[in-house]
Amino acid sequence: MKYKEKPLILITNDDGIKAGGLVALVEVAKRIGDVVVVVPNESYSAMSHAITVKHPLYVKEIKQKKGVALYKVNGTPVDCIKLAINKLLDRTPDVVVSGINHGSNSSVSIHYSGTMGAAREGAINGIPSVGFSLLSHSYDADFTYAKPYIKKILKHVISNGLPIGTYLNVNIPDIKGLKDVKVCRQARGKWVEELIEREDPRNRKYYWLTGYFKNFEPEATDTDEWALEHGFVSVVPCTIDTTDCKYYKELKDKEDELQV
Amino acid sequence: MKYKEKPLILITNDDGIKAGGLVALVEVAKRIGDVVVVVPNESYSAMSHAITVKHPLYVKEIKQKKGVALYKVNGTPVDCIKLAINKLLDRTPDVVVSGINHGSNSSVSIHYSGTMGAAREGAINGIPSVGFSLLSHSYDADFTYAKPYIKKILKHVISNGLPIGTYLNVNIPDIKGLKDVKVCRQARGKWVEELIEREDPRNRKYYWLTGYFKNFEPEATDTDEWALEHGFVSVVPCTIDTTDCKYYKELKDKEDELQV
Predict the structure, then answer these.
(1) What is the spatial distance between Cα A48 and Cα A51, in angstroms, rounded to a whole number?
(2) Residue B146 lies in a domain
(3) Distance (Å) from the C-alpha of residue A149 to the closest C-alpha of chain B?
(4) pLDDT at residue B2 greater than cutoff 70
(5) Model ipTM?
(6) What is the CATH number of the domain that holds A238?
(7) Which of A13, B58, B169, B227 could bridge B182 with an S-S bond, Cβ 3.0-4.6 Å?
(8) Which domain holds residue A174?
(9) Overall number of domains in chain A
(10) CB-based contact (8 Å) between A4 and chain B?
(11) Per the domain annotation, does A3 fall within a domain?
(12) pTM reported for the whole predicted model
């Protein structure tokens, strides 16, 4: 695909404007196209696909830096995408990119992730969309080795597009010797909760959510979890259609059992 | 399936403990099994699959009413499910039920919905789960005509179970003469944003998110939107697996194009 003008790249994240992952993503993106960054004004981790309905949204335009436009919003990553597409941009972006998240969004973590919520919102709006995550929660995470992969995938998506309603969940191990890019399916697994129980000074019990991820199919070699454990960059093509096609047929055949 | 003891029904919602939809759901559920209600202590609409990571969670036990245990949590619907399963319940619930939401969660609205987030969390934990929504945002909505359908579907799910990772998105028109239950697929559509722009007393612009839903395939007769528009109760079997199986194969064939 040839562009008369440079491709327009809309970027958001859920870690806020100072996150190293955002800086690294902008560095890659501005070599490919015009970049507009619209991000939450604070960390909005684990906000999933939430939108803000209880308070109004304010947009603050930050001084442009080397052709990159920057906006901050007092809302979620999905709010940022909605505001950008419907108010801040003068044309539809060629791609929505979210990240680079500090921490994995593989397997079912996609459901909790604000980073992936923003990518999903791009896809709902018919825009090719990608979420990137590095497998390091460190504030000082090093994105050097991830960058060539991000550039390659981003250019591929801009050139080839994605089917309407499809978005990519890209996770990258935090290692130097990254292997190939592997197209995967979402692994079956879940977060095993280990609620931390404490008492406050008024003797009231309180809980912190925490836990560890458990892969239910560690032997399967076609999952994102397997790829990441073996040093590959995982790319899961995701759909906004939640319909369980297999069980749909099964339940459709038993539809009469559901009648009142 | 025969129970030695009554089935255990875990209920949550995203409208809080006083919502008429919750009261109606509990009325149906307590005739079927033992009921434990764990709900946010305030309205958590549009919170999607968000979890609370920035502050600790407090649980308040409310006095039991007629064999129904009630808890309030200062968190999201998904937090409520996590706390219930891992801390409050002494056995795994036979079914997780969320709602009855005041307002539709059909088509892509499932992604924004806290009600459906809770049902999805149940499914992630391997528990048959259902979210119910009535197509009325009214605080005083009348759930009378919805109740027999909810009872029927709930009993069916408890007796037959659901595949691991599958949950049901049930939407019910707000009318007296409801037709049959229709097993559907998720309609393609999106929320068309109409951001309301205003100025605060300090002359700063602010925005409210609002809009209307647009069905991209109004002629298709197998979607939830079609069913609801024609007076049917829609049941969409949903999966926690976001993988786009069709595009997965296509992109897998082009995997070499993604290599650095």
Answers:
(1) 9
(2) yes
(3) 6
(4) no
(5) 0.95
(6) 3.40.1210.10
(7) B227
(8) 8-186+219-258
(9) 1
(10) no
(11) no
(12) 0.96
